[in-house]
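Incident log, structure service

09:12 report received: a user says their structure output differs between two submissions of the same chain.
09:20 pulled the input from the user's history:
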Amino acid sequence: MVRKIERDYRRFRDIIKGNIRKDFKKYISNGEMIGREGKYIVSIPYKNLKVPTFRHKMSDDIGVGHGEGKEGDPVNGQQGSANAGDQPGKHVLEVELTLSEIAEIMEKELQLPRIKPKGKDEVLAPHFRYTTISKYGPETLRHFKRTYRHALKRQIVSGRYDKDNPKIVPERDDRRYKFRKLQNVPQNNAVIIYMMDISGSMADEQKDIVRTEIFWIDTWLRSQYKRLVVRYLVHDAVAWEVDREKFFRIRESGGTRISSVLELCTKIIQKDYPADQWNVYPFHFSDGDNWGQDDTQKCSEILKNEILPNVNMFCYGQVKSAYGSGQFKKDLDEAFKDDGRVITSEIKDKEHIYDSIKDFLGKGK
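09:34 re-ran on a clean worker, output below:
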C-alpha cells in the first residue's frame, strides 16, 4: 500500500511538472513566484489544479443533506446576504517544487546543455562518504543486506538453517553498519558576478526584469555546481559592491561610466577567484547608454585583456529603456563579433526574458 501511494504521488508530481513545463514561458516572465522563493524550494501559484480527494457514495435516504427541509433553505435559520455573487471563484493553489526540479524543467524546456567546467576548475574539498562496513554503529545506519548475509552464513555453518522453514534471525555479532570516512573529493567551484547600471535611466521596471532573469540564471547554475558564490556590483559613473537586497533596491541616479564596474570586476576576479580554480560568470545589465565613445573603447580593452582570459564567458543583457540609446550592445557586437566568449542579449520586456536566458545559457560554457 505504501509503495502504491508513493508511486501515485510521483505520478501526480510528474503531471504537475508536465503542466508547468507547457506554460513555462509564462512562469519565466512572472516575477510573482520569486517572492515565494525559499532556500531549497519555490512555491509556484498554479491555477485549475485538481487535487485528488475521496468521494463517498451517496445514499437515497441517509447521510448528510437528507434531513428535513428543501434545497435553498437557510442553514440554522440564518439567511445569506442578498448581495452575494453568482460566479464561481478562481481557485489558485501553490505547488512547491525544489530548485533542482525547476532546473530540470529549465533543461528540458529551454534545451540547455550541461555545463562542462573549463580547465583546472576542480579543487579538493573535504567530504564524508560511506565507503566501508563496521561491526559497530547506530541502528539508523545498519546495512540490512550485509546483516542478513552474515546471519544466514552463521546459521548454515552451525547447522541451524532449515530450508523448509528458512527463518533468519540476526544476532548481535551479525549486525553490520555503514561507516563513513573523510575524503578529499573533487568539487567544482563557480562564482557569478552580477553587475547592474543604476544610472537615472534604469527605473524600477528595468530592475524588475533584471531581478527575474537573475533568479533563473541562479537556479540553473546552482544545479551545475556544488559550490556557487554570488557577488553584486552596481555602478553609475563609479562602481561599488553591495549585497543582494541593496542590489535591487538601490535608487537610480547619476550618469553612466561602464568601465568603472568592469575595473572593479577585474580586481575581484584577480584577488579572489583565480582562473585555474574557479569558473567565473560575469553578467552585466544596462540600458545601453555609456559616457562617451572613449569609455566604450576602454571597456573593450578591459574585456579583451583582463576579463575574458579569466572567465568562462561574459554576458551582457541590454534592458530596453525609454531613455537608453542601446548603443553599447552594438559596440560590443562589433568589437567581439568573432569571440564566442562574449554573449549579448536584448531584453525588450518581460516576455523576452525567456529568449535572453537561452542566449546566455544555451552555449553550455
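09:41 both user submissions now match this output. Likely a transient worker issue. Closing.
09:42 reviewer note: The chain has three domains: 1-51+91-111, 123-183, 188-361. The chain is about 35% helix and 20% strand.
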